[in-house]
Amino acid sequence: MNMSINGQSIWLEINLAALRRNINRLQQHTQRPVMAVVKANAYGHGIVEVSRAAAQAGAIYLCVARIEEALKIRQAGIGTPILVMGYTKPSKVLEAVENHVSLTVSDWNTARAYAKKTAEIKKKIHLHAKIDTGMSRLGVLAEDGANFCNWITQQDFFHLEGVFTHFACADELSNPVTDQQIQRFNVVLDELRSLGIKPGLVHASNSAATLFYPAAWYDAVRPGIAIYGLNPAPNAPLPAGYEQVLSWKCLLASAKTLPKGAGVGYGHTYFTSREEHIGVAAIGYADGFRRVRDNIALLRGKRIHQAGSVCMDQTLWSLDDLPEAEVGDEVILIGQQGGQTITADEIAALWGTINYEVVCGLTDRVHRIFIDDEA
Ligand SMILES: *Cc1c(COP(=O)(O)O)cnc(C)c1O
Fold it and tell me: Ligand 1: which of 222, 225, 357 to mutate, judged by most atoms within 8 Å of the beta carbon?
């Protein structure tokens, strides 16, 4: 089926039903509600549509990194609770309150600035306190965690809605750091209990911890990559049954036979060694395709290999095995064709990075087509 219904030459197919099923699997596996992480345009999948589908699947929060992302969700008319997990300037507090967006507080100075701001506007802000149990990124150090939460509960215009931490190594299944982080977090929670402070929603687990560390499930889990059906790491793969939500496709824009000795593409980094069939696909680095030399794709159910360098809008391919290929054929960058599959993991390995960066790098000009095989 050619999904290029509006005539795009490059597009993503996002299966929202698969996303909902992945979320349901995570809910069943943990018997906990899911806080769906939809930052970075939902890992490239499209923040508005993914947020709506996640909420339909029962996600109790949508988690983003920046307030702009939260506002985009609200502007689309989605009312699900939203948590901004990253830093928000105190000048944005009013906008957060007005849009029912919960903010993370992860340091004392910002917390004091929020207190001042909310006292001025006389409006209550919903906050999640971030505890640094060993990631050494955002958060007050665990030793100071209970004290910090205690102070938050004493501010007139603060509502402590949650307390959370984040793991550094949960995708390394034999790394003892995760257990240490869980222990440190438990100490903070115990201290809060003995102070009589209600932490609200306690959450910690990214995808890897959601899959592999039941001790880290607490009140809710906070997976990102797994809801998209992508592995947290090659050595921490999803169990069977999870479905890759995204496929990345484009069209063949040229197919022709070149004479022996033709220089191909910018810089002539490739020369035909005989009469050779060369194709051009409508994909370039401006779409998020990395400018390496050895990219692969699927065409007519076969693997094809790059020839020459990736350009801004096009990439050249050796089609010697596919003389029958025609302009307008579908070329698969991520996804399946004729029993062959290319995964985001495989591309990540070629690019020397992780699957997260592959999908987050998909740029805006790549049209997103949302499909729903249950609708
Ligand atoms: C990105 C992020 C997540 C989700 O991580 P995954 O590995 O994609 O599951 C969870 N919590 C925080 C704080 C994050 O920044």
Answer: 222
Distance 39 CA to ligand 1 centre (A): 9
Of residues 251, 241, 232, the one with CA closest to residue 315: 251
Atom of ligand 1 nearest to the CA of 170: 7
Residue ID of nearest Cα to ligand 1 atom 4: 224
Closest atom of ligand 1 to CA, residue 225? 8
* Cα 14 to ligand 1 centre (Å): 20
Which residue do the tokens 């306690």 mark? 202
The tens digit of pLDDT for each residue in 122-181 reads 999 999 999 999 999 999 999 999 999 999 999 999 999 999 999 999 999 999 999 999
User: What positions carry a catalytic annotation?
Assistant: 39, 266
What pLDDT score does 98 carry? 98
What residues form DSSP beta bridges with 141? 132
Q: Whose CA is nearest to atom 1 of ligand 1?
A: 224
Closest CA to 274 of 322, 306, 320: 320
Blockwise average pLDDT, block size 10, the chain, 375 residues? 72 98 98 98 98 98 98 98 98 98 98 98 98 97 98 98 98 96 98 98 98 98 98 97 98 97 95 96 98 97 96 97 96 97 98 98 97 88
The whole-number pLDDT of residue 3 equals: 55
Mutating to test ligand 1, I would choose from 166, 169, 212, 354 the residue with most ligand atoms within 8 A of its C-beta, which is: 166
Measure the CA–CA gap between 255 and 253, rounded to whole angstroms: 7
Q: How close is the Cα of 223 to the center of ligand 1, in Å?
A: 6
| Residue 204 in tokens | 């910690």
Quote the CA–CA distance of 280 and 227 in Å, as a whole number: 33
| Maximum alpha-carbon separation in the chain | 80
Q: How far apart are CA 287 and CA 299, in angstroms?
A: 19
- What integer pLDDT is reported at residue 375 of this predicted model? 77
Closest by Cα among 240, 216, 210, 246 to 228: 246
Which numbered atom of ligand 1 lies nearest the CA of 206? 9
224 ligand 1 Cβ < 6 A: yes
Residue 4: what pLDDT?
57
Residue where the block lists tokens 């240490």: 180
- Report the amino acid identity of residue 331: V
Atom of ligand 1 nearest to the CA of 171: 7
